[in-house]
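Researcher: Here's a chain I'd like modeled. Treat it as a single chain, no partners, no ligands.
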Amino acid sequence: MGGHSAHRRRHRGRADGHRRGHDLNRARPAPPRRAAFRADIQALRAIAIAAVVLNHLWPTRLTGGYVGVDVFFVISGFLITSHLTREVAATGRIALAAFYARRVRRLLPAALLVLIVSAIGTLLLLPYPRWPRAGAEIAASAGYVENWFLSAMSVNYSALNDQATVAQHYWSLSVEEQFYLLWPLLLLAAAWWAARRSARPRVVAVVVLAVLVVTSLAASVIATTLIPSQAYFATYTRAWEFGVGGLLALTATRRLPRVGADVLALGGLVMIALAAVFFGPATPFPGYVALLPVLGTAAVILAGTGRERLWHTAVTGTRPVQWIGDVSYSLYLWHWPLIVLVPFLVGAAASTVMKLGILALSLLLAWATARFVERPGQRWKVLAASPRRTLLAMLGAVVTVALVGGGLVLAGRAASAADVPPVTVTIEECVGPQAMDPGAECPDRFGPAADVVMGPGNAYFDVPDECGADPALLPFGDTTATVVCDFSAGAADAPTVWLVGDSHAQQWQGAVFDLARTEGWIVTTSFGGGCPVIDAPFVGFRTPASAAEQARCREWSAAVQAAVVEAAPDVVLTSSAGRVQLVDDGTDRPQIDQFADGLQSTWRAWADAGVTVIALGGVPFNGEVRSPDCLLVNARNPLACAVPIAEAQPADPYLLAASTADDPSIRSFDAGPYFCDETRCYAAIGGTAVFYDADHLNLDYVRRFAPMLADVIGPIVGD
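Model: Modeled as a single isolated chain. Structure tokens:
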């Protein structure tokens, strides 16, 4: 990625293996020596970009390929520190304006070009609900703060199911640019302090960098444990990786014996390979486990210090490997927007053939961009003549791209403003879930949906005007979680209904509100993101959660359980993503048994308080078993998105708990037959899209369940 810079131009002569470690200041400044080309570092780039691209194209095959980013970070730290220390050693200073101008000319032309093309592709190919998020990320990427944008979004539960945008991969470039901005200043500060204390500048720089590495690594370990989603993107959790490369540049100045260098290089490459193969989405990362690819990269770089050839050079020094390393920055820029956009262009889900085509097109565009944009941009005389001119041009270009991103945001919001759910929905035979009614004779039960673009009018979390949020009632941490909706028209004996759980309970509220409007109920909803209402110790959603997240969920869950007993509503409907939520009651039994027992304990307490409990069974998986965009790109052939029922509809703890409760006050609603037949589960039924996003139902589809829910709930006699 960005660290490809000062090392780029090739020197075919022998590397200077005996170069001494200079102090950061010298009495007699001399022109800085140009770095010898390192074929091993170029090969590391090729390995890193190959790991990243293969992971993005085949995420279930090379599950840990994302560590290629960490390889790039170490390389960048090594090369930039080497360049800066050579400059200070030769001239006694760092020409900051010239340094930043070189970075700009090296990195921005290609990066901004890809962002502009990505914005156009988003506008032309992606549905309008995607435009605001994509535009915001394009603007953030242009300003190299995409990592902080994603970190902020990761704490927004409603954003977890957003599809990746064309600019999401710019997060790592943002981290890298922030390093480039701050590290020269820190190096200068170390040199200034050393001069005042008559200390050796290089020694001071090593100490400063060592402190940075230790501090950042500790922060990375802590943050990965406590706030894993945010930690992945944060600069402070990644700075130590650059620092390791920087320490190498400052200390690794001696040539190693040939055998030792070969063994060290082999060990380093094995470490990178192990991380790429055995890490996965559930690996707590970066944290301490990032030491494996980081130290592996450092070992390969150290092994190559001062040597032209090592055992691996016969492969890594070949032209194809070196060429991939040469275009790796542009390849990184292009591959991801192509992965996002090409399925929409072709009108089909990504197949192996399509992925191979994306790979080929990415390589072609990478070559063209490196040849006609990257290299000419570095030598463009209009800008190279003046750092100030370069920086002003950068400012103008960044603002222009940010405005393009802002335009996408405004266009998406304008298109969304007119898309609101209708007040009422007419239940029709063969439309939506009614097409799955026993005996229904529908001519094209699983044919194309009338609308596959899921806008605000399809949002499962839409709240009607009769509802008002109550920040003081059952908050989820510092988030308002509870809403009271009064459809009673002031009736003194209005039935009271509660709907509680996580967003998998929330997705049913459209049908509940329609019933409430018809029947005159007062509905209270309380939803904790990713959190079940259960009398069992919650430990995580799909993977173990941080201690803070566990505590927040448990506190809210206990409060809801107690509030239901105290309020004693007529009916409580409850659900959650119980198949992927983790609890631990200390018995080591299967998760489904622990979960079901915890639910039963909660429900019996409610039933004892006179409450009728209705468990809403889990709906089929979507994002876990098919691309969330499957219906969008297969709009004319929705059967391409059908998946086996065994994969999409595993056993559900809510239905298990209700069926074994042996209490007439505890009932269940199994919606499975309205999504699946005996063999497969579908993404479009009765001319209606089933899902809103990767994890939740389309509001229009849900509202058509009102008659089925009414049958399960039965008549309610209010107080």
